Amino acid sequence: MFDRKTIRDIDVRGKRVIVRVDYNVPLDEELSVTDDTRIRLSLPTLEYLRKNDAKIILMAHLGRPKGVPEDRFRLDPAATRLQELMGVEVKKFDEVYSEEIKDYTETVLGPGEIVMLENLRFHPGEKSNDRALSKALASLADIYVDDAFGAAHRAHASIAGVPEFIPAVSGFLLEKEVETLNSLLESPERPFLTILGGSKVSDKIQVIRNLLDKVDTLILGGGMTYTFLKAKGMEIGRSICEDDQLDYAREMMELAESNTVKLLLPVDITVAREYDKDSDLKVVSPDSIPADWMGLDIGPETARLFSREAGSSSTIFWNGPVGVFEWERFSKGTSSIAFAVAESGAVTVAGGGDTVAAIKMYGLSDKFSHISSGGGASMELLEGKLLPGIEALMKK
């Protein structure tokens, strides 16, 4: 359950409401938004606030500016797209904070109207959680709403700082994300399958540890596979490997066995002579990877094995591709898993930037029960960590 107050629990009518949204969207060379998913995800919260006559002030970040203004990271494209989606004017300011902005929010901004501040990361105090910046942003409003789950794991001024000064509640997106991910930890329909891919074991250490007493089956794929295979004493050629994680891999395999968790590794591997999309390739067993070759995808038998497991599960969480899916010749494993999960009939939750990119590539977005908008935040939540963006909100 989500134990924090939401916008339903507070009177927003006629109040100035500052909303932290996640508008870190991709832009093309003409600085137009190429994927407006994150903007669309904020609409239920914003429509609710408008319907209830709140005066709305939006704040967000975009890209990785170095604490100073950079034209290519301005939020104007996001403001334009939001205006198109909502059909109402979105007034965009060119500063993160100023006395002019404060005066506008106090004397001009009307019920149901929307203004947007400039990219928060243009101010060095955002990432350092500067108290003065937090207090200044809070002075613009009566109520704070966090609807930026993708940034909830950051102890930044706009996430953890502002709530120190004004009442702080959750928007609908943040609430949904936390409830969905917590349900995986607390009450999943069984059998519960987790599929973890990606390149590094070290990125998934705490997630694997935290899930091994909650899942029925754990599938491991992608680059992290080869650390586990090497830990089992197999030769992995020139495949990616984290030698400093070998003991951890052995520990996790032992823990899975003691918890009676089925831990599945690839039974065949698609290997390449070079790390190149046009490299020679062949399929080999995990214990037969040639010394001068590297694994770049799971093999066809593994894809069938993993797909069958998905088909017999009632809850599935997937984070991380199982091969270099950006290259067509090494995308078969990730593609197979994406379609198997989408067609499983299970409650399906996916998270992580590459995972979401693969799902979109295959046109399967509407086939998943929930696609998390926050890769890092979702993984930290599943690690059992307390996220600053959630901790800062008022409890029910």
Structure report:
This protein is of the alpha/beta class and 396 residues long. The chain has two domains: 7-175, Phosphoglycerate kinase, N-terminal domain (Rossmann fold); 188-382, Rossmann fold (3-Layer(aba) Sandwich), CATH 3.40.50.1260. The protein has helices at 37-41, 43-51, 76-86, 99-107, 124-127, 131-138, 157-161, 172-186, 205-211, 225-231, 246-258, 300-311, 332-342, 353-361, 375-382, 388-391, and strands at 16-20, 55-59, 90-92, 114-116, 143-146, 168-170, 192-196, 217-220, 262-264, 269-272, 281-284, 294-298, 315-319, 347-350, 370-371. It has a six-stranded parallel sheet. A six-stranded parallel sheet has the order 9-8-7-13-14-15, with helices on both faces. Helix 10 crosses helix 11 (246-258) and helix 12 (300-311) packs parallel to helix 13. It is elongated and about 70 Å long.
Task: Indicate the topology.
Elements: E1 16-20, H1 37-41, H2 43-51, E2 55-59, H3 76-86, E3 90-92, H4 99-107, E4 114-116, H5 124-127, H6 131-138, E5 143-146, H7 157-161, E6 168-170, H8 172-186, E7 192-196, H9 205-211, E8 217-220, H10 225-231, H11 246-258, E9 262-264, E10 269-272, E11 281-284, E12 294-298, H12 300-311, E13 315-319, H13 332-342, E14 347-350, H14 353-361, E15 370-371, H15 375-382, H16 388-391
Parallel strand pairs: 1-2, 1-5, 2-4, 3-4, 5-6, 7-8, 7-13, 8-9, 13-14, 14-15
Antiparallel strand pairs: 10-11, 10-12
